[in-house]
Automatic annotation (TrEMBL):
Main location: membrane
Protein name from the UniProt record: ARL6 interacting reticulophagy regulator 1
Organism: Chinchilla lanigera
Lineage: Eukaryota, Metazoa, Chordata, Craniata, Vertebrata
Recorded GO MF terms: identical protein binding
Membrane topology: Multi-pass membrane protein
GO cellular component: cytosol; endoplasmic reticulum tubular network; Sec61 translocon complex
Length: 203
């Protein structure tokens, strides 16, 4: 068991080091984005909501076709991938890179690797469920996809995408400030109260 844990830890370290090397040119930008996403200042959350809303308002106003939208998005990614490593050191100053910043950059890359591992793990569990319990897999997928289709039919696609993107960008801050765990705890307490009330009625 200990050998398996050591192997997993070593693999995590190798993947993290590889990701750090790949994203080295994005280091300064990632640190700034990390501060914004973790809400280090009180005005960061409304700023995130405002910027996302503005971007989607522009998309709504321009009303591009799917092909044009995808092409512009990929073109923006290509430009960012080319320009950011060149401009970031000049804007932020590579000589200001400290040990603390390097440590935080390492933590960010490690978290990205862990998140990627979790996503792959959930994907593998889904296929395991398909192989071991095909009926449950079929029913779960049909109900989930039907629910998503119904929501998509009721809410405008662009508005739904805007809400999802906003939530995902606010999620690190919600988690950092304990807001998610707070409401999950409240929900658990309410569920426990309901279960206790049912047990009392049954008695």
């Amino acid at each position: 068991m200990a050998e398996g844990d050591n192997r997993s830890t070593n693999l995590l370290a190798v993947e993290t080091a590889s990701l750090e090397e790949q994203l080295q040119g994005w280091g300064e930008v990632m640190l700034v984005a990390d501060k914004v996403l973790r809400w280090e200042k009180a005005w960061f959350p409304p700023a995130i909501v405002g910027v996302v809303s503005l971007v989607f308002l522009i998309i709504y106003y321009l009303d591009p076709s799917v092909l044009s939208g995808v092409s512009c998005f990929v073109m923006f990614l290509c430009l960012a991938d080319y320009l950011v490593p060149i401009l970031a050191p000049r804007i932020f100053g590579s000589n200001k890179w400290t040990t603390e910043q390097q440590q935080r950059f390492h933590e960010i890359c490690s978290n990205v690797v862990k998140t990627r591992r979790r996503a792959v793990g959930w994907w593998k569990r889904l296929f395991t469920l398909k192989e071991e319990k095909p009926k449950m897999y079929f029913v779960t997928m049909i109900i989930s996809l039907a629910a998503v289709a119904w929501v998509g039919q009721q809410v405008h696609n662009l508005l739904l995408t805007c809400l999802i993107v906003t939530f995902l960008l606010l999620l690190p801050g919600l988690n950092q400030h304990g807001i998610i765990s707070k409401y999950i705890g409240m929900a658990k307490r309410e569920i426990n109260k309901l279960l206790k009330q049912k047990e009392k009625k049954n008695e």
